[in-house]
Design a protein that fits this description.
The structure is a single chain. With 149 residues, this protein is α+β, with helices and mostly antiparallel strands. It has one domain: TcpA-like pilin, CATH 3.30.1690. The protein contains three helices and four strands. It has a four-stranded antiparallel sheet with strand order 1-2-4-3, with helices on one face. A hairpin with a 2-residue loop joins strand 1 (97-102) and strand 2.
């Protein structure tokens, strides 16, 4: 008499379905992580703009204008957080922060962040606009966020 052996394990179809489910969950998890990461970069950039503006205001105290201000000066005087430092490659997208007198109005200051991804660039400019003072503006062009206070 011959015994029938039953094979155990998974069929190809079961393995393929399991793998497809794993890939689907991984891709959606990555997309959610990327969205969270982008939100954090936007918030960090806005926070950094505020820190640089505060440092610029502290630097200007007692001066008639922002003539002579730059990131190195703010960093050397310890007015900006060490994470921002001299501004080179320190924004969340790896670009630079710059600060200087507003063109045509040295009583105001202009701060820029370069190399910002296109999608969040306009979002950052929009979020910074309501915080700016009278006569100020914020723009996004070619990955550069520019805010004049």
């Amino acid at each position: 008499m011959r015994l029938i052996k039953h094979q155990t394990g998974f069929t190809f179809t079961e393995i393929a379905l399991g793998l497809a489910l794993f890939v689907l969950v991984s891709v959606s998890g990555f997309a959610a992580f990327q969205a969270l990461s982008d939100r954090n970069k936007v918030n960090d950039t806005i926070k950094d703009f505020g820190a640089i503006f505060s440092a610029a205001e502290d630097w200007k105290a007692g001066k008639a204008s922002f003539t002579g201000i730059d990131m190195d000066t703010l960093n050397t005087q310890g007015l900006v957080p060490t994470a921002i430092g001299g501004g080179s490659g320190t924004n969340p997208w790896g670009g630079d922060f710059t600060v200087g007198p507003k063109t045509g109005d040295i009583a105001h200051v202009t701060i820029t962040a370069t190399n910002v991804d296109a999608k969040p660039c306009a979002n950052i400019a929009d979020k910074l606009l309501p915080d700016s003072q009278s006569g100020s503006n914020s723009t996004c062009a070619s990955g550069v966020v520019t805010v004049s206070y």
